[in-house]
């Protein structure tokens, strides 16, 4: 590969030369970091505490929702994200999407990742969808910690009022001009990633906008790198990626299962209990921090990072690391 040859030549010359980054198309991508699951769990504890302090839920129009938005926004603002609250009205109440842009990258080539931050009104919504929300937050914080400078511009979204019919994500996509929609080259969705009797599902690209296969493959590769077998699933209109797919934006995502029942074949390859729902507390008051498989949360979040690093074209090395025998 070109970059390797360049490095060999530089090493042989024994001169202080900084190797220039290889052309974009040839640049190998940086391996994604392993996201510490304890950090994701800490965000889930915070979301649980927010629900507990606000009537037991984080639902649209309730104070626990806005407190959830403020928690995520505060963490992102502190590390240099450009955040915006996108407000909308639904059921006579103000709803909020949080949009967070990581400065840099090609503004005409945007990769988005998101998930819904609202819960149903009967419970705290820790697996649905504290799990995806917390994973996205920790991955976004890791982007900042590493000062990642990918080729694509990275944007994260936390959606409101998903549980009432994909309201927030639909309003966001509808708020964009045709030109703003056209620069979004992909959207990756995470809705339920810590199911207590977990599955490792990747959204099927079949019937999705052209380009969705690239996202499906990146997510499958992430699980494969961890030795975790996957199944494809057709999520259809059941989560926020559908709002993007309707605008012809390539989509994908991962999912650990909701009310569906784990088969014996699945229990054999994934562990857990056959004949039982992936998430027995789906849309119930028992969807608390006790309703989380740490293994599932860890794996799905690591795969999220793996896919974002590869799909965004994270560079193999920074200019400093490229420097071989550099002058002090
Ligand atoms: N959209 C989900 C909910 O919030 O209830 C559940 C779900 C996610 C179902 C992904 C299917 C696939
Ligand atoms: Ca991890
Ligand atoms: Zn959900």
Provide tags for this entry:
328 residues, alpha/beta, 8-stranded mixed β-sheet, 11 helices, globular, disordered N terminus, binds calcium ion, binds zinc ion, zinc, Peptidase M28, metalloexopeptidase activity
How are the SSEs ordered, and which strands pair?
Blueprint: H1 2-13, E1 17-18, H2 37-53, H3 63-77, E2 82-90, E3 93-102, E4 106-116, H4 126-145, E5 152-159, H5 167-175, H6 178-182, E6 184-190, E7 201-203, H7 212-225, E8 231-233, H8 241-246, E9 251-255, H9 264-270, H10 294-312, H11 319-322, E10 323-324
Parallel strand pairs: 4-5, 4-6, 6-9, 7-8
Antiparallel strand pairs: 1-10, 2-3, 3-5, 7-9
Helix pairs in contact: 2-3, 2-4, 4-10, 7-10
Bound molecules: D-phenylalanine, calcium ion and zinc ion.
Describe, in short, the structure shown.
This protein has 328 residues and is of the alpha/beta class.
> Structural class of the secondary elements?
alpha/beta
Please give the number of β-strands. Answer: 10
The unreliable regions are 1-26, 317-328
Here the CATH topology equals Aminopeptidase
**Spatial shape:** globular
Bound molecules: D-phenylalanine, calcium ion, zinc ion
Order of helices and strands: HEHHEEEHEHHEEHEHEHHHE
> pLDDT average, as an integer?
90
> Please, how many helices?
11
Describe the structure.
With 328 residues, the protein is α/β, with parallel strands linked by helices. The protein has one domain: Zn peptidases (Aminopeptidase). Helix content is 39%, strand content 18%. It contains eleven helices and ten strands. It has helices spanning 2-13, 37-53, 63-77, 126-145, 167-175, 178-182, 212-225, 241-246, 264-270, 294-312, 319-322, and strands at residues 17-18, 82-90, 93-102, 106-116, 152-159, 184-190, 201-203, 231-233, 251-255, 323-324. The strands form two sheets. Strands 2-3-5-4-6-9-7-8 form an eight-stranded mixed beta sheet, with helices on both faces. The chain has a two-stranded antiparallel ribbon with strand order 1-10. Strand 7 (201-203), helix 7 and strand 8 (231-233) form a beta-alpha-beta unit. Helix 2 (37-53) crosses helix 4 (126-145) and helix 7 packs across helix 10 (294-312). The chain starts with a helix and ends with a strand. Bound molecules: D-phenylalanine, calcium ion (CA) and zinc ion. D-phenylalanine binds next to helix 4. This is Peptidase M28.
